[in-house]
């Protein structure tokens, strides 16, 4: 058990606080086109510290804030928290449970928190780098991109192997 | 570092070859160093030959064959150095029935060391899942998420 | 030539808006000239807003929404200036059940002026077809083609 | 009725002569992954005069010849013929039926035929240009490329509209 829970608020199509609890094994996310499934995957990528808006289908990072609907105003901030079970010690922290939060304000300011403590982006990056959930991780495959690994340049593919090594 | 890379490369290539052959019921695949003498500086190519066919460029592979080949490499990476969890968004979109089944089976084989979050429209993949979330679009472009069981989803 | 282009542009944009709204059950879409004063020299952007959502960049659209938007534009082009036949290779891969049904319906509506050849794994799309060919891979990488009827294909 | 029949021999996964008859309306091509469905679509694109190997997933045009199998030799040539019903006169020729053939020899030589007469590539191009089946036709959508029209640059999209106009 590693991934316990995900909480999304104000991010993309989740204006209200939304919680997903994960079990061991396989969790399937299903639903109609445009319902928000890939947005959940984007939220996971985002809270892990992704800095490239394009990888979450955003033109700019500000597009992550819920844009409002016909009778609902846009969100003032976007926040995602991921809870991880660390009883096995796979994360280099002395906690048995680790909660990482990323919050983007309309002003453009971003907060990162680990177990409610304000940290810097690099602390989040270092935390996940060892767990192979860092940037370019092979552990996240975006929609329509499954065969991207086949079209990589040989040097890019080597980087993937190096990361695993 | 040079031997660490070489060792990783060999083991991932072997895992990839094995996963490919299992998915395709035959054929052969491997990773190839473009410049072996340069060791860790070398690029990496993929060689893949489905059963009954001669060795050809990757470009000729079909959509589903490309998906299965890519997933075989992913699983080789995960077996060599397991990520704690892995998010797959509709990687089964181009797969036919038989391949979706093999994919689901391979996922299940890896759940001992990696949790999977899969977005899918495919019922066979859903059946492999232990937890099911249904996402629906409500008013004002707001999604709502509901915990589901397989019995809740009508057969098409 | 300038007016011919303007006339074509307006009619295709209107057809696109209408097809989009039919596919999405609402919302709005249109083609936009990036530099209207330059007439035929101008580029063309697509504006698309699914129902209940505010206007956002195309990048934010989901996989299935992108497919339906692209198909809406294709059908607008076909209505304005019908091609004698049209080959579509798995354009329904990202569509959910409801959208595949609308897609099949729209295809059928256009068969008066265009013949369609569609490659698909989706049973709903197969059901819209008047002719069915099954392709299978034999020994030595040689395909064989068989004429089929819907009754020949088992429900999954 | 426009598209009547397609004959494929020696092209990609069709070493033996394969015939498809088309009806009015919709023809669906189905089958397992890697069986040859997209290869049929490639054959149609090829016989219409496509010059870019990449659009038929070929590294070079020579890759179009059946490469052989474990116990079957490679083909010496690839040939595709398309029969079109011209009773409506949509093609600028005085025949009620038009058959276009493209044949590629292992030597690299290519023959183009219209109703069994040797012609040049440009004759095939001119024939189809008026019928909106020319290069960059919106009438052929390749696998995985359905939303390509959304990622085109504005000028490329204008070219598509111009072609229809
Ligand atoms: N910041 C935002 N505010 C409001 N809506 C947004 C925002 N970002 C994205 N969306 C909406 O999210 C929708 C896409 O959601 P998503 O990609 O998760 O769909 P999906 O469930 O994966 O569908 P598919 O099955 O087609 O892939 C789009 O309609 C888009 O308008
Ligand atoms: N010149 C050739 N000689 C022999 N085999 C070839 C040749 N060109 C392509 N192939 C084979 O054709 C196969 C792909 O066929 P195709 O793309 O038509 O499959 P498909 O039925 O569309 O499958 P999918 O449902 O996965 O898209 C590959 O396995 C490839 O090796
Ligand atoms: Mg999606
Ligand atoms: Mg295909």
Note the main attributes of this structure.
heterotetramer, A: 165 residues, alpha+beta, six-stranded antiparallel β-sheet, 21% helix, 27% strand, globular, B: 156 residues, two-stranded antiparallel sheet, two-stranded parallel sheet, 4 helices, binds adenosine-5'-triphosphate, binds magnesium ion
Chart the SSEs and their pairings.
The complex is a heterotetramer, with 2 copies of chain A (165 residues) and 2 copies of chain B (156 residues).
Chain A: E1 3-9, E2 18-21, E3 26-30, H1 37-47, E4 77-85, E5 97-105, E6 110-114, E7 117-119, H2 121-129, E8 140-141, H3 148-151, H4 154-164
Antiparallel strand pairs in A: 1-2, 1-4, 4-5, 5-6, 6-7
Chain B: H1 2-24, E1 28-33, E2 44-49, H2 63-80, E3 85-89, H3 97-110, E4 115-119, H4 123-127, E5 131-137, E6 143-148
Parallel strand pairs in B: 3-4
Antiparallel strand pairs in B: 1-2, 5-6
Helix pairs in contact in B: 1-2, 2-3
Please trace the helix and strand order of chain B, writing H or E for each element: HEEHEHEHEE
Q: Helical region count of chain A?
A: 4
> How does the major sheet of chain A shape up?
6 strands, antiparallel
β-strand number of chain B: 6
Quaternary: heterotetramer
Structural class of chain B: alpha+beta
Query: Radius of gyration of chain B from the CA trace?
Result: 18 Å
Distance between the termini of chain B: 53 Å
Q: Could you tell me the number of beta strands of chain A?
A: 8
- What integer value in Å does the Rg of chain A equal? 16 Å
**Mean pLDDT reading of chain B:** 94
Q: Secondary-structure element sequence of chain A?
A: EEEHEEEEHEHH
Structural class of chain A: alpha+beta
Largest beta sheet: strand ordering of chain A: 2-1-4-5-6-7
What does this structure look like?
The complex is a heterotetramer, with two copies of chain A (165 residues) and two copies of chain B (156 residues). Chain A has 165 residues and is an alpha+beta fold. Chain A is built from four helices and eight strands, in the order E-E-E-H-E-E-E-E-H-E-H-H. Chain A has helices at 37-47, 121-129, 148-151, 154-164; strands at 3-9, 18-21, 26-30, 77-85, 97-105, 110-114, 117-119, 140-141. Chain A has a six-stranded antiparallel beta sheet. Chain A is globular. The relative contact order of chain A is 0.15. Chain B is of the alpha+beta class. Chain B contains four helices and six strands, in the order H-E-E-H-E-H-E-H-E-E. Chain B has helices spanning 2-24, 63-80, 97-110, 123-127; strands at 28-33, 44-49, 85-89, 115-119, 131-137, 143-148. Chain B has a two-stranded antiparallel sheet with strand order 1-2. In chain B, strands 3-4 form a two-stranded parallel ribbon. In chain B, a hairpin with a 5-residue loop joins strand 5 (131-137) and strand 6 (143-148). The longest helix of chain B is centred in the first third of the chain and has 23 residues, at 2-24. The radius of gyration of chain B is 18 Å and the shape is globular. The model of chain B has no long low-confidence stretch (mean pLDDT 94). The structure holds adenosine-5'-triphosphate (2 copies) and magnesium ion (MG) (2 copies). One adenosine-5'-triphosphate (ATP) sits between chains D (12-13, 31, 33-39, 63-67, 143) and B (50, 53, 56, 60-65, 94).
